[in-house]
Predict the 3D structure of the following.
Amino acid sequence: MLSKDHIALSIASALLLFGAWLFQEPLLIAVGLIGVLVGSLLPDTDAPDSRIYYMKIPSLFGNAMDYLVIPVIKFVFRKKKFDYNPEHRGSLHTVFAVTVYSIAFTVFGIILLTFHNAFIFQDWNLISYLYLLMFTFGLFFGGVLHLMEDSCTKSGIFPLYPYNEWYLKGGISTGNREDDRPEDFSKALIVLAVISIAGPLVFQFNPIHVFLISIVTLIAIWMLFYSISQ
Ligand SMILES: [Zn+2]
């Protein structure tokens, strides 16, 4: 799937999930959404021509991935005696790798933030850690969404490898501009996201109830997208 489709589908899915809190915690949700945007591109750092290397802030994470994080992932694979497959849609396109690199980014982030707070900012600024965790959760969630999106494409992926050889594939061919299913999926998600944003804001629904309904809706709509993609 193209990078623009990954970004649109992931941001719209995240807006559906967190829409209920958008106007209560705008800054926290914005930080999470930036995490989702970057996270939705990170699995494709296994392709050297990935769009992530041509975008300002995401390219920082693309390079951090190459020089800092992928060595950590390879180390973890070696320790667990798993084979690391560096090819496109190989090991980086698995829930295991997304989990490992999200934890690695969280640890690197905590080290950098602590250094910054202690020596430059000179204040512990505990709230900054909450924003960092929201950002790295966004990286994780964006990565998982990327896997769901690639599961709808013709090449398919093994999302649970190395624990399970379950192969998911659909019928969407990357780069086929005639196929507007990714665009239609994004539009459907945006309509649902608007409803989840409007729930607490316009109709005064309890945000927790809207959030719980959004989780179920998100799972159901992605199962529907998967079947439509076949
Ligand atoms: Zn991919």
Summary: The two ends are 14 Å apart (CA to CA).
